[in-house]
Amino acid sequence: MDLFSSQKTVFNLPQAELIYIPHFYTPQKAHDLFVSLLENCTWQQDTITIFGKTHLQPRLTALYANNTKSYSYSNIIMQPQPFTDKLLHIKTAIENEANTNFTTVLLNRYRHGNDSNGWHADNEKELGKNPIIASLSLGASRYFHYKHRTIKTERHKLLLESGSLLIMAGEMQQFWLHQIPKTKKNVGERINLTFRKIV
Ligand SMILES: O=C(O)CCC(=O)C(=O)O
Ligand SMILES: [Fe+2]
């Protein structure tokens, strides 16, 4: 870890805990992890059904866990693969930072600016109440938008840079929504890893 790894921003938000650590990994280490995960993960592109119409999900995903519990969201049921050594290593580093244990990592691969992740909360039952979700970003920078469900003045965006760690906790998944919007900018590929506890 680099000299700046301890720098963090704790956002002051109603009904949410949100912490941003820009230099969790150095740019070089983040690049190395990005290349390795791009090559070695078992990426899939699922079909989602919205209002009876089927679409391909606008990104690739992969799921790894230390148990066999499936993860379902948006009509998709994902079955995990066992953790690789590389992913286990990242998991341990992030567990030390977030002071919690995770069972599962969901990886998202945004191939270009037209890949995205629509407004949602990570509020599936299997995550439990007030889950801690730690989100590592690698590769191209993309904006993370987040908004309160009812306080309309609470709308914010944050540029997630390569090597950064974003920790969502408290009541955030109950009271807030988040998204990675499409962008018309000519952005490169990005991988995001969200570590979760599924029990
Ligand atoms: O790509 C990101 O930064 C966010 C991913 C996300 O919100 C999710 O997988 O639930
Ligand atoms: Fe999410």
UniProtKB/TrEMBL annotation:
Cross-referenced InterPro entries: AlkB-like, AlkB-like_sf, ALKBH3, Oxoglu/Fe-dep_dioxygenase_dom
Gene3D superfamilies: Alpha-ketoglutarate-dependent dioxygenase AlkB-like
Classification via Pfam families: 2OG-FeII_Oxy_2
Biological-process GO terms, alphabetical: DNA alkylation repair
Record carries keyword DNA damage: yes
Keywords: Dioxygenase, DNA damage, DNA repair, Iron, Magnesium, Metal-binding, Oxidoreductase
Keyword hit for Acetylation: no
Cofactors that this protein relies on: Fe(2+)
Fe2OG dioxygenase domain ranges (all copies): 101-199
PROSITE patterns: FE2OG_OXY
MF (Gene Ontology): catalytic activity, acting on DNA; demethylase activity; dioxygenase activity; hydrolase activity; metal ion binding; oxidoreductase activity, acting on paired donors, with incorporation or reduction of molecular oxygen
Name of this chain's protein: Alkylated DNA repair dioxygenase AlkB
